[in-house]
Amino acid sequence: MMWLSNLYFLVPLGILGVVYGLIGRKLWLRPQRSSRDRAQRHTIKMLVTMSQVQQAMALLISAFHKYSGKEGDKTTLSKGELKDLLYAELGEILGKNTDQAKIDKIFKDLDANSDGSVDFQEYVTLVACLTMVCNEFFTKK
C-alpha cells in the first residue's frame, strides 16, 4: 500500500518536471522578436555570470543613484541626500543616532572639490574607507 501512495506522488511530480522543463526550453529557444526580449535575455545571462565583485560594484552604483538627483543634479548627492543614504544604507556601521554635526563633518570631508555636493568618486571614497576600517576590525588578532 505504501508503494502505491508513493507512486501517486512521484508520477505527477515527474510529469510536472518534464512539462515545466519543456516549457522553459521552448521559452529560452524561441526566436527573439523584439529588442526587449534580447535585453531580458542579456540581463539574465549577466546576472548569472557576474562575479561577487561585479555584483558589489553594481550595488554601489545603484545605491548611489537611488538617492542622487532627488534635490537637484542626478549625478551628485546633496547634503540631505547623503544623510538619507547614510541612515538607510550605512546606519548599522555609522550608528543610527548620528547627529547633524557628524553629517556636516562627513559631508565636508567628502566634498573634496568644495562644490557643495558629493559626486560618485567622492561617494566611492567613503565606501572604500569604511570597507578598509571594517576589514581591519575583522582581521585584528
Automatic annotation (TrEMBL):
Pfam families documented for this protein: EF-hand_1 (PF00036), S_100 (PF01023)
Transmembrane residue ranges: 6-23
Example of a GO cellular component annotation carried by this entry: cytoplasm
Entry keyword annotation includes Transmembrane helix: yes
Keywords: Calcium, Membrane, Metal-binding, Repeat, Transmembrane, Transmembrane helix
Domain EF-hand: start-end pairs: 98-133
InterPro entries: EF-hand-dom_pair, EF_Hand_1_Ca_BS, EF_hand_dom, S-100_dom, S100/CaBP7/8-like_CS, S100_Ca-bd_sub
Domain of life, source organism: Eukaryota
GO function terms (MF aspect): calcium ion binding; calcium-dependent protein binding; transition metal ion binding
PANTHER family: PROTEIN S100, S100 CALCIUM-BINDING PROTEIN
Name of the protein described by the UniProt record: Protein S100
Species name: Oncorhynchus tshawytscha (Chinook salmon)
Organism placement in taxonomy: Eukaryota, Metazoa, Chordata, Craniata, Vertebrata
